[in-house]
């Protein structure tokens, strides 16, 4: 799914062709996404950045910086989802996906043109690319070595993930003052974590610039402002939870557009998706909304497909340095997802109208949530 998670495609496809009950479709999708994310993370953990071979392709600074606000945005997005009519979700979803499709498509074309120009000028050839790949063989301990360079970031990521896992099992009424105080406390804690991470990244970047020079850093997270990417992460979490799309659908185009290497985008977004989807999958299991037979079968298919996709990337994309193919893949996923969700969403809206269901904002969905909600209402990316 080119770093997007694929949930925005899996849900309508499973709803249309799998025969699984609507209430189980999203949990099944979460299982598929989680399987792909786990497989991809194990592939990317020992990978080195294509432009800085002593650094990991996963940007641990970015994951630690964005994860708190991404989690917070998702919490608010779930609440917004419950009070919004389906047609509003479809309209917002169409706008987000159309904008992402346009921007990513333009970036893919520009990257392809740059690669063609470099090849025509003889600056990049298949033999040298293959040689560069062979010069940095994978080691079984490469993942530990690379992650060990970012110990505090890894601890922050694991800590936030563990906390969000624990608080996800609360049994509070969302229309009670207790829940309001809980949400306020969670907001304060995650915002404080973001401030601390931002300050640490800023000080580390300054120290590295003095030691190694400004050209050593592969991506500057403080280039625009200290809270630019945390704000982007909050919006990503909010929209992904409210609209039922994968966070990578919004986050990947943003990172590509600001100049992050496409392979680093794919690896970094996969780690974010793993943290987010693992929490959602466990929540569905705790609620008894997992059909294990279907989940295990489709998870196996997803594992095989993910491995084949990674092999294809290794054999051609990375060795030939044709990273525009990853960006084109993101564009293709966006286009297919837009078409699939428009079809499935239109059918759902027409069904709601035919059955005379509420077509405007209502607190009833939040305070008296039905156990048999539609796939867009249940999905959190």
Describe, in plain words, how this protein is organized in 3D.
With 381 residues, the protein is an all-alpha fold. The protein has 15 helices and 2 strands. It has a two-stranded antiparallel ribbon with strand order 1-2. β1 and β2 form a beta hairpin. α2 runs parallel beside α12 and α4 packs antiparallel against α13. The longest helix is centred in the middle third of the chain and has 36 residues. The protein is globular and about 65 Å long. The two termini are 13 Å apart. 42% of the residues are buried.
Nutshell version of this structure?
By secondary structure, the chain is an all-alpha fold. The chain has helices spanning 7-17, 22-44, 60-83, 86-120, 126-134, 142-148, 151-167, 177-212, 228-243, 247-257, 262-286, 292-320, 324-354, 364-367, 375-378; strands at residues 48-49, 52-56.
Task: For this entry, give a set of tags.
single chain, 381 residues, mainly alpha, two-stranded antiparallel ribbon, 15 helices
Biggest sheet overview: 2 strands, antiparallel
Overall average pLDDT? 75
Number of helices: 15
Q: Order of helices and strands, N to C?
A: HHEEHHHHHHHHHHHHH
Strand content: under 5%
The strands making up the biggest β-sheet line up spatially as 1-2
State the end-to-end distance: 13 Å
**What best-fitting shape do the alpha-carbon axes yield?**
globular
How many β strands by DSSP? 2
Percentage of residues in helical conformation: over 70%
Outline the low-pLDDT stretches: 124-136, 369-381
Strand-pairing-aware structural class: mainly alpha
Compute the gyration radius: what is it? 21 Å
């Amino acid at each position: 799914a080119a770093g997007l998670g694929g949930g925005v495609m899996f849900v309508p496809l499973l709803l249309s062709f799998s025969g699984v009950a609507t209430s189980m479709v999203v949990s099944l999708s979460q299982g598929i996404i989680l399987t792909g994310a786990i497989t991809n993370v194990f592939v990317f953990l020992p990978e080195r950045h294509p432009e800085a071979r002593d650094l990991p392709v996963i940007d641990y600074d970015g994951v630690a910086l964005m994860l708190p606000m991404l989690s917070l945005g998702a919490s608010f997005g779930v609440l917004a989802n419950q009070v919004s009519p389906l047609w509003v979700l479809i309209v917002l979803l169409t706008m987000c996906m159309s904008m992402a499709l346009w921007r990513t498509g333009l970036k893919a074309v520009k990257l392809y043109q740059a690669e063609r120009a470099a090849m025509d000028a003889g600056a990049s050839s298949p033999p040298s690319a293959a040689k560069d790949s062979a010069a940095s063989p994978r080691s079984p301990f490469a993942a530990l070595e690379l992650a060990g360079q970012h110990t505090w970031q890894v601890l922050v990521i694991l800590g936030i993930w563990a906390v969000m896992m624990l608080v996800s099992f609360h049994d509070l009424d969302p229309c009670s003052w207790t829940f309001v105080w809980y949400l306020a406390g969670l907001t304060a804690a995650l915002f404080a974590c973001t401030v601390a991470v931002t300050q640490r990244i800023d000080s580390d970047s300054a120290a590295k610039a003095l030691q190694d020079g400004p050209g050593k850093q592969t991506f500057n997270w403080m280039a625009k402002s200290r809270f630019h990417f945390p704000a982007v992460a909050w919006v990503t979490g909010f929209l992904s939870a409210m609209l039922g799309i994968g966070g990578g659908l919004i986050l990947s185009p943003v990172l590509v557009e600001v100049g992050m290497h496409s392979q680093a985008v794919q690896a970094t977004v996969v780690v974010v998706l793993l943290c987010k989807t693992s929490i959602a999958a466990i929540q569905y299991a705790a609620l008894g909304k997992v059909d294990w037979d279907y989940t295990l079968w489709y998870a196996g298919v997803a594992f095989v497909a993910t491995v084949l996709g990674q092999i294809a990337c290794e054999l051609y994309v990375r060795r030939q340095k044709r990273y525009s193919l990853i960006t084109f893949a993101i564009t293709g996923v966006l286009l297919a997802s837009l078409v699939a969700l428009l079809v499935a969403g239109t059918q759902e809206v027409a069904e709601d109208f035919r059955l005379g269901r509420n077509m405007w904002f209502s607190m009833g969905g939040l305070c008296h949530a039905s156990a048999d909600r539609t796939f867009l209402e249940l999905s959190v990316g």
